[in-house]
Write a structure and sequence with these properties.
Length: 49
């Protein structure tokens, strides 16, 4: 869907490309930070009833 909207005009295409580049750059660090967060709270909260 994003690609369809981005193809409609040059400015949208430029914004979509910049956002994709940002996601590619930040994605691995996001995974690291999320893992640290879940590792930290895992012991505090049990999913068992």
């Amino acid at each position: 869907m994003l690609a369809e909207e981005a193809a409609k005009d040059a400015q949208s295409k430029k914004v979509a490309a910049a956002f994709e580049a940002f996601q590619n750059q930040v994605g691995p660090w996001f995974t690291v930070s999320e893992k640290a967060y879940y590792d930290r709270i895992f012991g505090k909260y049990s999913l068992k009833g």
